[in-house]
Amino acid sequence: MSSKKRMAAVAITVATLTAGSIGVASAHDGAGKGAAKATALADLVKAGTITQAQADAITRSLMISRQRWMQISQLIRRHMKHIAQK
Q: By C-alpha distance, which of 58, 34, 60, 33 is closest to 45?
């Protein structure tokens, strides 16, 4: 494997591991899928710290971010397979 391909493979591997870790961390929070986040936001709404609309916006934003990371992770995996086949 050439030096440039090896460097690319290492960079992609690091990016994949990072993206995967973020995706796993956001998907599984220990109390069930999203339960800890929902409880924390509900507590903030109950305390009057944020409004329900703000909690809903946070939830939507986190969901969109997770979906983007999943897409990026899939693209990186496909690229890694392509590099490995060469």
A: 58
- The ranges assigned to domains in the chain are 3-85
Sorted by sequence, the CB contacts under 8 Å of residue 22 that are 6+ apart come out as 69
The tokens 């929070």 sit on which residue? 29
Return the top range by mean pLDDT from 4-13, 21-30, 71-80.
71-80
The answer on pLDDT for 20 being more than 90 is no
Burial of residue 19, with CB atoms counted within 10 A of its CB: 0-12 exposed, 13-18 middle, 19 or more buried: buried
Write the burial class of residue 85 (CB in 10 Å: 0-12 exposed, 13-18 middle, 19+ buried). exposed
